[in-house]
Amino acid sequence: MTKDKQQHFLKLYEPIHDRFERFCRARVYGNMEYQDLMNDTLLVAFEKLDTLKSEKAFLSFLIGISVRILANHHKKNKEDSIADPIKFDLQDVNANTERDAEVYLLHKALAILPEEQRECIILFEISGFSIKEIMEIQSVSESAVKQRLKRGRAKLIEILTFESDYKKEVQHGTR
Questions:
Q1: What is the arithmetic mean of pLDDT over 130-138?
Q2: Which of 11, 2, 163, 5 is nearest to 87 (CA)?
Q3: Which domain CATH number covers 104?
Q4: Per-residue pLDDT tens for 58-111?
Q5: CA angle 118, 88, 100 (to 5 degrees)
């Protein structure tokens, strides 16, 4: 039974691994290691696999579990999760390319957004979920999802524009 359950779980997980990993990477930036979130989520999902109602909803099932794990993590570490939007460390020692640096800055900017907007943008833009799927995951209306996307995008533009202007000022010595 356990071997069959493992094989079934892997059969469901393998096709969605990349999307789930992208979600976890973007969602936990600065708060915890994405691998920890993935491992914790997969462990809970394996234990609760019998509660999955539809195999087509497996990715949503995983994301729902990971969102609850993150919420519990945030409750435990609330005082450590305050982000300072003005204080950006623009150097990433792990960035090997310009693209890596841009992704790093995007993740830092996403971390500043309110949680609902951040999650909505990550689900839509990075993980590729439809608005209807996000409605189900976040348990909100279609207009709420669209509003979160609109406000989140606007805030990201504001943050990234500010950072770009700030970086230019520092480089030119005007700041």
A1: 90
A2: 163
A3: 1.10.10.10
A4: 988 999 899 888 888 777 766 444 444 444 444 444 445 666 777 778 888 888
A5: 70
Same domain, 23 and 73: yes
Its domain, for residue 49, covers: 1-82
Q: What length does the chain have?
A: 175
Asked if residues 111 and 30 have their Cβ atoms less than 8 Å apart, the reply is: yes
H or E stretch at 12: helix 2-13
CA distance 19 to 130: 13
Q: Do 73 and 107 share a structural domain?
A: no
171 and 89 both lie in a single domain: yes
| CA–CA dist 21, 34 (Å, integer) | 8
